[in-house]
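Write out the 3D structure for:
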Amino acid sequence: MPQQDNLSGSNGTGSDPSVFFLTGIPRLEALHLWISIPFSSVFTMILLGNCTLLYVIKTEPSLHKPMFYFLAMLTVINLVLSTTTVPKILSIFWFNSREISFNACLVQMFFIHSMSMMESALLLAMAFDRYVAICNPLRYATILTNSMIAKIGLAALARAVLFMVPLPFLVRRLPFCQSHVISHCCCDHMAVAKLACASTMINNIYGIIVALFIVELDLLFIVLSYIKILRTVLSLASKEEQLKAFGTCVSHLCAILVVYVPGVLSSVTHRFSHQIAPYVHVLMGTFYLLFPPMMNPIVYGVKTKQIRDRVLLLFRRKSF
C-alpha cells in the first residue's frame, strides 16, 4: 500500500505542513480490518437507533413534551458526533486512508469537542426538566414552555461554539516542524497539540479550564438537582408514589452514566498515558465518542413505554 509506505518512509515529517496522518489504533494496525467489524456494527446501530428515535419523537403526539424535545436535541448531537468521526475511522481500517488535511483535522476537532460540550449541556437541561417535574409539578407547564426549551437549546449551542471556536485557532498558531503523525483514530485536541515543536501550555490550560468550569460544573448542577429530587421523592407518602416519581428519572440517570463514566475512564487513561499502552488510550477515547450515541436510543427505548410501544408498532408494520 503506497500510502503506508509513504507514511513509514517519511515518518510523517516536514514535507507538507498542511497534511497530517492518523495512525488508527497504534500497535494494532495488523488487526484494523478485524477491528472494523465492531466499529461498523456500532456505527450502523448509531444511525439506525438515533434516526428511529427522532422519527418516533416527531410522529408520536404523546412524546411532544419538554423531556423528549431535549432528547431529540441530544439525538441530533449524537448523529453529528458520530458522522464526523466514524467514516474517517472506517476509511483508515478498510482502505488505509490515513491522510487528513490540517483544515479538515481542525474542523473535526471542533465538532468532536463542541458536540461533547453540547451533550453535557443537554444532560443538565434534562436534569432541570426532572427537577421541575418532581419538585414543582404545578408550575411545570408554565416554566418549560416551547419558547424556554428553544432558548435552552440555543444557549447550549452558543456556549459550545463560544468556548470551542478558540480551540482550532490555538492549535493553528502552533508550529509543526517535526512529526505529522497523530497517534489516534481522530483529531483529538491534545493528540494534535502534542506534535507541536513549541510550548503547548496555553492549550493545556485552556483544556483544563473548559473541563473544570464547564463540563464538571454541569455535572455538579446535575448532582445538586438530583439531591433535591431525592429529598422530594423521599417525602412522598407512599412507596408506590416514590417509585413512580423516581421511575421517571431512570432513563436520564442511565444516560448520565453512559456519557460520564466513559468520559472519566478516558480522562484517567489520558492522565496515566505513560504507564498505559497507547492503543488502550486510543480505544478508550474512541469508546467515549461512540458508546453514548449507541446506548442512548437503547436506554430510552427500553425505559420509556411510549417510545418502546411506538417502535414495536413501527417494526410490526414493516414486517407485514
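The first strand starts at residue 19 and ends at 22.
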